[in-house]
Design a protein that fits this description.
The complex is a heterodimer. By secondary structure, chain A is of the alpha/beta class. Chain A is 39% helix and 18% strand. Chain B is α+β, with helices and mostly antiparallel strands. Chain B is globular and about 80 Å long. Classes of the chains: A alpha/beta, B alpha+beta.
């Protein structure tokens, strides 16, 4: 009996280790956003250099859209960009860009070099709108439904796998919700 | 070229570590000295090879070789040269390589210093070290290779996280790792002792200097980290109970407990099982600390390496090291026999009580750190445990520990008279009570508990000094004779006195900066004033300036105290464009009584800045106390060797002859 007590540390460790193992299978980046299910905050951003149109929250009225936070200084955005170009070319979803804390002309040069997947681009040089949206870093992508509510927030670049497994099914679901609401 | 040399050296180091992890075991098993000696040579080879790999990565960073992915992701050609060097370990891959370098360094040091002592015990310990090293080298090579290339290399790098571009953080991780990894030696000896069913006074004497070294480094590392958080993060605090801070604090608590109980094993041959368990616990917590930071299981300001794939690998290492050692413990612990008995009221009893407090405190920190993870697993809910939890659980435990520390340290071994021991210390008790009363009066309406805490700190310091005075007869002998007696005291005793004084000083600093601080926030235009404590700071000007890789706003304040001008201070807010990050550089005016601490916030409207002003009493003593603690450890580690004792004996003989 007295020797059983020497097993106690091992048993305790196995229990704790089990919790660790389960905890690891969860995505550490899945930080809940307080804005999920809330209406998109109102904003009206000026255009970036050389563009005529800016980006206002009212531009998305009635549309299922992705709002992509990017910046020319953000390296991960460069990794994400080809995926955004592909979505813009092949898929039926509106993508809006929020150019975050970029120096003057930085966003325009970025789009001229890498291509422009965005229907609207707004210049958030001070990062004010990003604060309203609860942006934690770039790139980040918000999915907005037809009623102007934020439904999902993707932290980090959209990879082909994330698009295929998470975002595309979500966008399709939101579109059918939108059509159902119109009928 | 450097990267390829590094890569090759790392692969060779893994091979050396595997050799080190196998042959000495066999040597100890077969009682074959030649086979056991392979441990020494392979440990030295591993040390040299990892050093070459680390040097290779350092060269890649120093010359800004942007075809190495690690350099691209963490450096920039405009970064100051010092931070190009510290950037080597300012990232995941490099910091793991530093971990491996220190592990290999300890292994080599063990091989060099223990030539004659206990060949089989050391062989087993070296083999355990080798296996741990092999696991970490494999981790680096397979999941976190710092030598990966990218072709063609980009024109410039992504820069180092600006928070890390700071002298405090440049030297903080090496110290922390020297502490964490140092416990690998105590762990290795604990396993070796279990394998040979031998934990005795010799074992304790062999392990103690290593444990002290690790503990000293960890103490300095934690103090540096807290100092860095204090002046760089700009929120006026020194400790946030952040998971990464806790990760370094838990091994420190377990290590402190170990240092106390290993003394009991050395002196009395009891508490063996417990001491071995603490050795395993201290290193396990060091590994978990690494795991916490490197897997991102818990999100925090520090978790800049979020990658579950690596986490799974580290989890495997953890399971093997901790699970393996605890299994061995379960089988062998019953065979360790106590060599004596002791009365509950005795030095042994007091140390055991101290251990219970330290381990319980460690447990509360553990629960506070991991509870959010448990909740996430059970219900999928994300929450964080804040400072209120730790303040309500950890601080009372520490207060109890301080209360028993001084009389406990004065008790005799085996059996002691509690009443007499405590009564002897009445002046210290009276001084503590007086300080508590005065502190309560001055700081009212701040919490009374803090004033009581100050009284406890004085009680500890007073009783510790009294014990020293009684030992040296400072009250009855002339000063010179008392000093001679002090020199004759064992180093381990002097180290203990210093460490206990250090704890008392730290306690005062914690109370001052944690409880008695004052804070004001105001929106200032140029010429406006903000008042905190006895100080008034006037915002003179805000100018823009450019650093090597950042742009900054610098606010100049002129300071007056009680109406008299006492000088200027400047606080900065820096913007690092490559990373798109901001940092605050607080303006701090340090005195022995307390710090005036100013930070510059965002420009809220045209020409108005948010300014925070803090007055943090006694905060300097936090780091002075940590320094005294570390000094105590250093003194205790330099215990007289047999030769020195012999010299002392000769001196005494000469004196006796002179007297005759």
């Amino acid at each position: 009996m007295s020797r059983l007590i020497f097993l106690a540390p091992l048993v305790l460790f196995i229990v704790l280790g089990g919790y660790f193992a389960i905890g690891l299978t969860r995505d550490p980046a899945r930080i809940p956003s307080v804005l999920i299910e809330k209406p998109l905050p109102e904003f009206d951003l000026p255009p970036i250099e050389g563009f005529e149109k800016g980006f206002a929250s009212s531009d998305l009225k009635g549309e299922v859209a992705l709002i992509n936070v990017f910046a020319s200084w953000c390296v991960a955005c460069g990794i994400e960009h080809p995926m955004l170009m592909e979505i813009a070319a092949k898929e039926d979803v509106l993508i809006a860009g929020l150019d975050w804390k970029d120096p003057k002309g930085g966003g325009a040069r970025w789009l001229a070099k890498n291509g422009n997947p965005y229907a609207f681009v707004g210049d958030d040089a001070q990062g004010r709108t990003a604060i309203d949206l609860g942006v934690t870093g770039a790139p980040e992508t918000f999915v907005v439904d037809h009623a102007g509510r934020i439904r999902y927030k993707q932290i980090g670049p959209i990879t082909p796998q994330i698009w295929r497994d998470t975002l595309k099914p979500l966008v399709e679901q939101l579109k059918s919700e939108g059509e159902a609401a119109r009928d | 070229m450097a990267a390829e040399i590094g890569q090759f050296a790392l692969i060779m180091a893994l091979c050396a570590a595997l050799v080190q992890g196998v042959f000495p075991f066999l040597g100890a098993l077969k009682r074959d000295l030649a086979l056991a000696a392979i441990g020494r040579s392979s440990a030295l080879a591993q040390g040299a090879l990892v050093a070459i790999a680390f040097a290779a990565l350092t060269v890649s960073h120093a010359v800004s070789d942007f075809t190495v992915v690690n350099v691209v992701e963490n450096s920039h050609s405009a970064k100051p040269f010092v931070y190009k060097l510290s950037g080597v370990w300012g990232n995941h891959e490099g910091s793991m390589l530093l971990w491996a370098l220190i592990l290999a360094g300890y292994g080599a040091a063990l091989a060099l210093t223990s030539r004659r002592k206990e060949p089989y015990l050391t062989a087993n310990a070296l083999a355990v070290q080798g296996l741990v090293a092999a696991a970490f080298l494999a981790f680096i090579l397979f999941t976190s290779n710092p030598f990966e290339r990218v072709f063609p290399g980009p024109a410039d790098g992504m820069d180092l996280n600006p928070l890390l571009q700071d002298p405090g953080l440049a030297i903080h991780p090496p110290f922390l790792y020297l502490g964490y990894v140092g416990f690998s030696i105590t762990f290795a000896y604990a396993i070796a002792g279990l394998l040979q069913k031998r934990i005795d006074a010799d074992w304790a004497r062999t392990v103690r200097p290593w444990a002290l070294a690790a503990w000293v480094f960890l103490t300095i590392g934690i103090a540096l980290g807290s100092w860095w958080a204090y002046y760089e993060l700009g929120w006026g605090g020194f400790w946030a109970w952040d998971p990464v801070e806790n990760a370094s604090f838990m091994p420190w608590l377990a290590g402190t407990a170990f240092l106390h109980s290993v003394r009991v094993v050395e002196k009395r041959g009891v508490l063996k099982v417990w001491t071995v368990l603490l050795a395993i616990l201290a290193f396990s917590l060091s590994l978990i600390g690494t795991f916490l930071v490197r897997s991102g299981v818990l999100t925090s300001v520090h978790a800049f390496a979020v990658d579950p794939a690596r986490g799974v690998f580290i989890l495997g290492i953890l399971a093997a090291v901790i699970g393996g050692s605890l299994t061995l413990f379960a089988f062998r612990a019953g065979m360790l026999k106590a060599e004596a008995t002791f009365d509950p009221v005795s030095r042994e009893g007091a140390i055991l009580l101290n251990n219970v407090f330290l381990v319980t405190a460690c447990g509360t920190v553990f629960i506070g750190t991991f509870y959010p993870l448990f909740i996430d697993v059970i219900s999928g809910e994300r929450l964080s445990v804040g400072p209120p939890f730790f303040n309500a659980t950890f601080l009372p435990l520490m207060a109890l520990m301080l209360a028993i520390l001084a009389p406990g340290a004065a008790l005799a071994w085996k059996r002691a008279a509690l009443k007499a021991s405590v009564m002897r210390l009445w002046p210290a008790l009276a001084a503590g009570g007086a300080v508590a009363a005065i502190a309560a009066w001055i700081t009212w309406p701040k919490p009374i508990a803090a004033a009581a805490g100050a009284g406890l700190a004085i009680w500890v310091a007073g009783a510790t000094l009294m014990d020293l005075a009684m030992r040296t007869k400072a009250f009855s002998l002339p000063l010179r004779d008392a000093l001679t007696r002090a020199r004759g005291l064992p180093r381990s005793y002097l180290g203990m006195i210093l460490a206990h004084l250090g704890i008392a000083i730290v306690a005062l600093g914690v109370l001052g900066a944690g409880v008695w601080r004052t804070e004001t926030v105001a929106l200032l235009h140029k010429g406006d004033e903000i008042k905190v404590g006895a100080f008034v700071a006037r915002l003179v000007d805000v100018e823009e300036l450019n650093g090597a890789n950042y742009a900054a706003e610098r606010a100049k304040f002129s300071i007056s105290k009680d109406g008299r001008p006492i000088g200027d201070m400047a606080a900065e807010r820096r913007f690092y464009p490559v990373r798109g990050m901001q940092t605050t550089e607080a303006a701090i005016r340090t005195t022995v009584a307390g710090d005036l601490y100013l930070t510059l916030g965002e420009q809220a409207s045209q020409g108005a800045w948010a300014v925070r002003a803090y007055y943090n009493p006694l905060v300097l003593w936090l780091w002075v106390g940590a320094g005294v603690l570390a000094l105590g450890g250093i003194v205790a580690a330099n215990e007289r060797t047999a030769r020195k004792d012999q010299r002392v004996a000769e001196l005494k003989g000469a004196q006796a002859a002179g007297a005759a």
